[in-house]
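Protocol step 4 of 6: structure prediction from sequence.
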Amino acid sequence: MRKCIHVILLGCCSLAMYQAKACDLDFPDLTESHTQMKKLGNASLSVLFWDIYKSTLYTSEAEKPSSASKVLFEIQYQREIGSQDLVEQTMAQWQHLKLSPAEYKNYLPELRSIWPSVKKGDTLALLVSNNSSSFYLNQSCIGTINDPHFGKRFLDIWLSPNTSEPKLRKRLLGERG
């Protein structure tokens, strides 16, 4: 059951038009950022015989995310997942990491406004740069959270030593074993 939590962690929802346009004008082009970064690792999540997603972690200069100036995390979904499930399971993972509600509760309405349901084949990406975290669905910016702590808290779902998926963490960080 705990692996199912990752099934619904990353997703996206529609933004108001003015916010979507702000994304297009003010935030980094994902294609340009992607070509400037180095792949650190990749991993797939499957539950029993169902493939859930494939994920890849990129950083500037192939450094660990804590020391990199930019981090790009991509998930390509292998099945459909509803937007509400994505938000609920993100919260469940933060609880698993023992974050206090005060550390994440203000993000939940923002995530609900950004994340739509995802379909099989959709790619959701998070680009963390300059104390800002921008979400992209299939290469198009869908929303940004301007909080210097959000990017780390979100990525910790996969990258914290206390993640619910330690094997997946190792593969994303380019470690074997």
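Step 5 (inspection) to follow. Helices lie at 4-7, 17-26, 30-36, 83-96, 101-104, 107-114, 150-159, 166-172.
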